[in-house]
Design goal:
There is one protein chain. This protein has 249 residues and is of the alpha/beta class. The chain has seven helices and nine strands. It has a nine-stranded mixed beta sheet with strand order 1-4-3-2-5-6-9-7-8. Strand 2, helix 3 and strand 3 form a beta-alpha-beta unit. The protein is globular, with a radius of gyration of 17 Å.
Length: 249
């Protein structure tokens, strides 16, 4: 498959140019666990824990297997520099990563090549790319950055193969997230200033309704919370962030 770095011309309007530019500027620092994207490195194991559990349940996979996605293909939408693509590849999937920023795609391709991983990366709108459908689609911390959430989710749903699994995560729109994820986190430098726009956050109920509108039903939903004894972890507390799995209704 190769580490292709392919750019397509968008024919839809879900990507905000200013959002793509903002994250493109962070590309060179994406893989630094103590850099500007440190928060993603900290939450990534929690997201991957949920993905693995969802894969095992949805595909009736062997929970002891180190490659439960062997023989399946996976798409990560809004892949950044590949923090999720690389673990999915190691789980056995043939992985495609798509991002709005060509700079992120370049950084992702270089990192995966250095690690000996065969991952296809492409830049552009997912709707405009001729990439087919996938057994697993992941879309993590992306929907809060898109201009037209309904159109975007339709594009996401169109990439799901029959019997496919979607995993999606996003911040919740609550008073707590406004105070902590936007105010405090940016003030202390935990995330770069301008990362989050609170009024674009989506509540779990709103997201479930949007997914239903494009023919998907949620199968599981968990909060991502911080606990003094555990750090970031899966939780019943959805006040700050949540992650869900979905399939065709």
């Amino acid at each position: 498959m190769g580490n292709a770095n392919t750019t397509a011309t968008p024919d839809s309007v879900t990507i905000r140019p200013e959002e793509a530019e903002f994250f493109a500027d962070l590309a060179k620092d994406w893989w630094n666990p103590k850099g500007k994207m440190a928060s993603l490195h900290q939450v990534n194991p929690v997201r991957l824990e949920f993905i693995r559990s969802s894969v095992d349940t949805h595909f009736d996979a062997d929970r002891l297997s180190i490659r439960p996605l062997e023989g399946k293909n996976a798409l990560d939408i809004g892949c950044g520099a590949g923090l999720v693509c690389e673990p999915l590849s190691r789980l056995g999937a043939a992985v495609t990563g798509v991002d709005a920023a060509a700079e992120n795609v370049s950084a992702a391709a270089a990192h995966s090549k250095a690690g000996g991983l065969d991952i296809r990366y492409m830049a552009g709108e997912v709707a405009s790319l001729d990439i087919g459908t996938f057994d697993l689609v992941t879309c993590l911390e992306v929907i809060e950055h898109v201009a037209d959430k309904t159109a975007f989710l339709k594009d996401v749903a169109d990439r799901l193969a029959p019997g496919g699994l979607l995993v999606l995560s996003t911040p919740n729109r609550t008073a707590a997230s406004r105070l902590l994820l936007v105010g405090a986190a940016e003030a202390v430098g935990y995330v770069p200033k301008g990362t989050h726009h609170w009024d674009e956050f989506v509540t779990p109920e709103e997201l479930e309704a949007l997914l239903s509108d494009v023919g998907l039903e949620v199968t599981e939903r968990r909060g991502i919370a911080w606990r003094p004894s555990k750090g970031l972890c899966l939780s019943d507390d959805e006040a700050l962030n949540y992650i869900l799995s979905a399939r065709r209704a």
